[in-house]
From TrEMBL:
Coiled-coil spans in chain: none
Cross-referenced PANTHER family: OS06G0725500 PROTEIN, OS08G0553750 PROTEIN
Name of the protein described by the UniProt record: Uncharacterized protein
Pfam families in the record: BPS1 (PF03087)
Source taxonomy: Eukaryota, Viridiplantae, Streptophyta, Embryophyta, Tracheophyta
Positions of the UniProt region annotated as Disordered: 1-35
Biased composition (Low complexity): 19-35
Biased composition (Polar residues): 7-18
GO biological process terms, semicolon-separated: root development; shoot system development
Organism, as annotated: Triticum aestivum (Wheat)
InterPro entries: BPS1_pln
Top-level taxon: Eukaryota
Amino acid sequence: MACHLRSASTPSSPRSNNTQVEQQLQSLSSTVSSPSATIDTMCHGLRRLADIYGGIEKMICTPSSQASLCHTLQRVAVEAELGRSLVVLDLCNAMQETFMELKMTVQELLLVLKRGEETSAQVKAYVRLAKKAQKQFKKISKKTASDKNDSRMVMLMAEAREITISLLESTSSILSKQIEVPKCSLVSKTLHKSKAVCEEEQLRALERSIGDLESGVELLYRRLIQNRVSLLNALSL
């Protein structure tokens, strides 16, 4: 993939882009770690993260950054970060598979609910899938020791990777609680609807949210691939 440089007559300076990406990462980190974070928060976070990776790619493609990344000392750090990024790509693939399975389980729940049958088996299957996704994060260390000589570019990539893992981990945690936490009583009382109708509405909303998460991870995956290609191009100069 060819790098797309800015064509405007007054392009932003690399330092300005650097600062902007750093601020976006700090803001997103606070959002993801908030106790009040919801599925919608994570959907929006995935889109923001994809934009951040887009900003990092623009930085990678500037002549000054490419010259710095090709320096002998930085080259080692960049190659190490390229290796670590494979873990995130694998996570994105795994999460996409989980989202697909969760959507299918929710669809099964809707069918069982419409027939008026017992839904405990489907609920257990949903929770089991969500908690299975959580377990994979225990094998990953989000804390990465960065060399003090690493360039700010490499450190930004490391920060973006760590936030990506945290966001995906938080997403799996939130999803595991969606069916466990009862929400129908208040809604039913307020809107005078039956519990079954309320549950169906919540399940359809959950299905849509999982679809949004799936799209967000797909977009993020594409941006991660673009970053890797740009880095490899820079190292080949």
